[in-house]
# Entry
Amino acid sequence: MLKIITDIGNWLVQSGALVTVAIFAWKYLKPVMVEKQKHAKTVQERELLGLVNSLADNAVNSLVNVQDVTGHDKFKQATTIVGSTLADKGFDVQRETVEHAVQAAYEKSDLTPTVDPNTKPQTGVVVHD
# Structure
């Protein structure tokens, strides 16, 4: 029985059938592996972006009640906080991405006044009917 297995193995190697099977298997498996790698990278990027947004929300909210600091300085502080926290954890995120996340958090926070689109601005002119 062992001789038959050895003979089959030798035949596969000598005839080139093993190489042919390997080539066809690689052609079918490579695209599947590439797609899995892309999917994993996309999931990682999505999770990292969620972390950046969460850190930005926390940084901006921590600066809401800080007095005597301009809005621009609060933005710079929040950007620095988020960037340094990510760097400390070993994440490499572009500064522009951090700034966009801080800007979005700033717009959602109490630092940005809300305007009711249904109310009309007061002009200071009183109209009498």
In short: The helical segments are 2-15, 17-62, 71-88, 95-108. Residues 17-62 form the longest helix (46 residues). The chain has four helices and no strands.
